[in-house]
Amino acid sequence: MKISVLGFALLSxxxxxxxxxxGQLQATRAIAAPEGFSSACQRYSWLCTTKxxxxxxxxxxxxxxxxxxxxxxxxxxxxxxxxVYGRSNYWALPKDGRGxxxxxxxxxxxxxxxxxxxxxxxxxxxxxDRSGNNHAVLMVRLADADYVLDxxxxxxxxxxxxxxxxxxxxxFENKAAWExxxxxxxxxxxxxx
Length: 193
Known about the structure:
Layout: H1 5-12, E1 29-31, H2 37-43, H3 58-75, E2 77-78, H4 81-84, E3 98-99, H5 101-114, E4 122-128, E5 134-141, E6 146-149, E7 157-158, E8 165-170, E9 178-183, H6 187-191
Helix pairs in contact: 3-5
C-alpha cells in the first residue's frame, strides 16, 4: 500500500504525544483523510455512513468479525493499486478478486454493514505494520476494546496485540472525517519530532 499516511502523521506528531493502553484508542485531534479516501466515500456512500445496525453482544460480534475477516481474506488476492486500477492510492472494493490492504478494509466494512453490524462501531484505520510499512486495517469498537480486522491474519486481535503503530482512523460518529490516534510501539518516534 502506498498511501501517504506517514507524511500527515509526521506533520501532526508534535501535538499528538499521548499514548493509549489496552482498550479503546483515544483520538487527539482531527486530521485530513488519507489520499484516495474521499473519492471512495463519493463512490460508496455506505463507506461514510453512520447508520445503526442490529444489537448484538460482544461475543456474537466477535464471531461475526472472525467470519467476515476470514471470508474476505480468502476471497481476495493481494495486488497493488497500480496493477489493479492503473493508479496508486485508489481506495475501492476489490476488482477481479484482487486488491491491496485498504481494499480489504473497504470490503470488510461492506460485508459487516450487509450483515447488520452498526456503522458507528467501525473505522478504517491507517497504521505502520511491524516492519514500519504503511498499512490499512478495519478497526471495530466493542465494549472492552478496539479490535482489528487485518488482511495479514485470520485472527481478530485487540489493537494493542497487533504490534502495529496506529496513526489515524475514520471518526466513529462522522465517517467522512478522520482523527489522529497515535499509539503503539513507534508512537514516541513521532511525538519527539
